[in-house]
Design goal:
Elements lengths: L2 H28 L7 H4 L6 H23 L7 H29 L12 H4 L1 H28 L1
Helix pairs in contact: 1-3, 1-6, 4-6
Length: 152
């Protein structure tokens, strides 16, 4: 895949995450009726100000990485490539399991008092966007691997 395609994919994932951040902020500050409730956006007990700042930091990282990809520059060194890839895989698998278990928990498959019926598992909107971020991490690893193969 070309640098332009990697950059386009990174931009698409970054814009999806930006939509999540903007949607949650709009719901928090203005309570708009066409978006899910504030509770639907929250998947943890992290206070909104801390969550919002961390999301902005993530968006800056994605923007910088996307610009570096577009310019054909490395994101990280060879020794980090495997660690980033494994982190992305683990992140994706855990969030996928969270989503599947949450569906089972909310449907009563595991019982109403089961671990899978707890809020962390049934917070679907945050989980979907964690999958978006996991996809971004995997994309970064795939780009770096392709980049290192080109220069070898």
């Amino acid at each position: 895949m070309s640098d332009d395609r990697f950059a386009a994919a990174s931009l698409a994932l970054g814009l999806a995450f930006l939509a999540r951040v903007a949607g949650q902020a709009a719901q928090r500050w203005w309570g708009v009726s066409f978006l899910p409730s504030q509770d639907a956006w929250q998947g943890s007990s992290l206070p909104f100000p801390a969550l919002f700042v961390s999301q902005l930091v993530i968006l800056v990282i994605i923007a910088v990485a996307t610009l570096r990809i577009r310019a054909g520059r490395n994101l990280f060194g060879r020794r980090w490539m495997t660690s980033v890839a494994w982190f992305g895989i683990l992140y994706f698998v855990v969030m996928s399991a969270r989503l599947v278990l949450g569906f089972g928990g909310s449907a009563g498959v595991f019982g109403e008092d089961s671990f899978a019926a707890r809020r962390w598992f049934t917070a679907y909107l945050p989980t979907v966007f964690h999958l978006v971020l996991a996809g971004e991490v995997l994309l970064f690893a795939a780009y770096q691997r392709a980049r290192l193969r080109q220069t070898s």
